[in-house]
Design goal:
The chain is an alpha+beta fold. Helices cover 24% and strands 17% of the residues. The protein is globular and about 40 Å long. 9% of the residues are buried.
């Protein structure tokens, strides 16, 4: 496949470390590409707005949702905005 994200995508990772809430009960955690679309679908998000760095991930986002047969939000990528006195991201 020409899009590298579609070549054997990783959906879970194993991390043997204590979690702040569950301790060492779980060691399997979902990867962003798997969790992102599924959470958007479950929460009924209509438009998932991301920065351009995720543009290549849209095909995988759509593919996961198509395979699950669940509600499909529209993902839109845009150039990063810098607005004064407004919080638009959890990251700096």
């Amino acid at each position: 496949h020409p899009n590298l994200n579609m070549r054997d995508p990783v959906i879970y990772r194993i991390l043997h470390a204590d979690h702040h809430r569950t301790g060492n009960t779980w060691c399997i955690y979902p990867m962003y590409d798997w969790a992102h679309g599924l959470e958007d679908s479950i929460e009924g998000i209509t438009h998932s707005i991301c920065t351009l760095e995720f543009e290549d991930h849209r095909l995988l986002y759509d593919w996961f949702l198509d395979q699950l047969g669940v509600y499909h939000p529209q993902q839109i990528e845009f150039a990063r905005l810098n607005l004064n006195y407004t919080i638009i991201s959890k990251r700096k």
